[in-house]
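Appendix B, Record 12. Input sequence as logged:
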Amino acid sequence: MEIIGYAAAVLIGISLGLIGGGGSILTVPVLVYLFGIDAFMATEYSLFIVGISSLVGSVSYFKKGLINFKIALIFGIPSVISIFLTRLYLLPLIPEKVFQINSFLVTKNVFLLLIFAGLMILASYKMIRKSIMEKPLKHKTNNNKALQAAGQGSIVGVLTGLVGAGGGFMIIPALVNLLKIPMKIAIGTSLVIISINSLIGFLTSVNHVQIEWKLLLSITAIAVAGIITGSQLSKKIDGKKLKPAFGWFILIMGIYIITKEIFV
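Logged structural output:
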């Protein structure tokens, strides 16, 4: 199963490199079902893996001048604040036994996985629907739209803090549709936001958990190799064309998690 897990880690990296998001949504299921890691710990590991992979992936976009740091700050600062508050205060409030109906018990791990599965289904919908059309960049950012982007950044921060997903599937549509940023710049900027969010989320709670660094670093190294590959492939392949197929895969995974955790 671990061999399949490492293969999936490559896929996570490639998807991040090609489409700037989506891959991180696979990280927690891969860690839980293929590496046998506890769901809560998997969210912590996911933050590190996604953070480092996205950071490496953003380098090639930086060299090409395809990152808007001003937008990264508008979106990123509210995200970071939300992640900090979520990891430090909200996550510890979730009890080990969330609720029980007759013999059906929902534990903290199952609860987190169900939230994650719902997030996967939402992500798949955004990927399957008609691709976002690339629009021209506006030099001046509308304050109202910037405020909306900051609001979405806060939502992404809560989700990242709660389930360890980078939120690229929400960031990119916000950057393109709301702030009118061209797709390639949106992908590069998204990778910067994801890396900052994920690594700060990891550092917020790393002192409270016991990390298997050898395993974590090996999975991260494979994911980094994947994102480097994905960044190279993006020169030849249009990532937008692959989004629907990847979306269907994530949808199937989301349904699988709900079915496994509730009915099996």
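Residues 2-263 form one domain.
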